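Sanity check. The docking grid for adenosine-5'-diphosphate depends on where the pocket ends up, so I'm generating a full predicted complex first rather than guessing from homology. Inputs follow.
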Amino acid sequence: MKILVINTGSSSIKYQLFDMAKETVLATGMAERIGSDAGTLSHTVTAADGTRNTIEITENMDHARGLSRIAALLMDKKHGVINDTSDVFAVGHRVVHGGETFQDPRIIDQRILDEIEKNTPLAPLHNPANLTGIRVAGAVFPNALQVAVFDTAFHQTLPKQAYMYALPHDLYDTHRIRRYGFHGTSHSYVAGKAAKFLNTPLARLNLITLHLGNGASATAIRNGKSVDTSMGLTPLEGLVMGSRTGDMDPAIPFFLSRHLDMSLDEIDTIFNRQSGLKGLCGENDMRTVLEKAAAGDDHARLALDVYTYRIKKYIGAYTAVLGRVDALVFTGGIGENASAVRERCCRGLAGLGIVIDPVENRDKKTLPRRISPRNTSVAVLVVPTDEELEIARQTQKKVLE
Ligand code: ADP
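Predicted complex below; grid placement will be based on this.
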């Protein structure tokens, strides 16, 4: 069964075509700057012998044209991986906000589209783009089943005490203002991988998973289910991120508005795009932050301190939430690659049973691996995430039900 996974943004389409027989990636790529004059499409095909062939296209395209181009490349005479669009059995869409409506993937019909639309106020940038992706894919792959996989779904098991804000109850009753959490496919994927690695059923494991990419979030998982997570109504809450603040005093916007005369849009831009690592030291890429810190840059050092201190606080909080932690799992571009960040997050946590072996920590193997000594109560693991594969798996499961 061939499944195409699509992640549509307001000006981008990322995609991977899977052959689910062996979960192999047949083709992968990304269309960027959609809607501008200089749209680009980079498409890579992996042949059966593992050789890769990349095609780059630059042209003015909208989402519909971009996806048609992608379909044409997938069917290309020379490097194509399908003969016809009907070879794609299903298209799995990453949909950012499923609100309280969706606890699991759905085969998309008009009712589901309407529900996703209803959740748009909760994700005004993401959900409209995801809906565009669904509509366009329906036109380009008319015979494929379309499945929505929600970033929020894994966290729908949060208990009320974890998801309610201490706001007037009416704001929840009427407007559904509560904590939702994101990165659900990643947290759920690495939790499953960790269970396999530890050779224990997920339903018996308590885990803290740390997804540290450009966005970042922590999740507390009890007996395989998400019981708390650091992102909230939107992805702004929680850990320090590449360019987002994470947690802060909710009165800061009042100050910026009243004393600095800033508009809501300006404040939104500062909190989402100019804060986090970028705000603290001018760089949002962790590799550069680490290089600058190593070279003695004070702001980069501070950024690293604030970033890892926040993570450490969440590890402590989630240890208290769970009572017993079997494993702490690092994933995402930073979690998988930045040994210095992992070391700082775990420094001084021996009292919680969290210790890192410095040699294992610096190992660059990409497989799931343990970086803590065997005799410690918490297994500290590095588990590469694969959100696309998880979406493909969930899509397959849904269409076979
Ligand atoms: P996204 O959330 O966009 O998918 P990624 O999961 O790819 O992002 O993570 C991007 C982050 O990972 C960037 O901050 C990048 O600097 C960091 N990163 C990637 N490789 C390394 C590395 N070898 N060392 C340190 N940080 C890394």
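Relevant for the grid: The CA atoms of residues 369 and 382 lie 5 Å apart.
Also worth noting: The chain has 15 helices and 14 strands.
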